[in-house]
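Researcher: Please predict.
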Amino acid sequence: MRTYRTVYNFTALLSLLPTENGGRKRPVYDHYRPSFSFSTANQFSGEISFTDKEELKPGGTANVEVKLLPSRNIPQRLKSGDSFTILEGERVVGTGVIQNINDEHRIPVN
């Protein structure tokens, strides 16, 4: 039986929590690398790139591109409308909603 890792690249609407609600104190910039959670206890690593701005301040919202690192533990096929949580360690710093899946493919693991 062959094992695979799944790769996802998608666009999303991302909102950072305000600082007074437990969010970050400083803005995030292109290539920000938080963890992502999709309605599970598992966290997945990925990278966020901005499509229409250079930075996102706490409390702000932006359209972003997300590239998840390959993982065999993503529990479901992600789709438009799925929500997710952005974490730094165990701390929730933002939320998002997938707008469009740009790329989904599987990589065989040897």
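Model: The mean pLDDT is 90.
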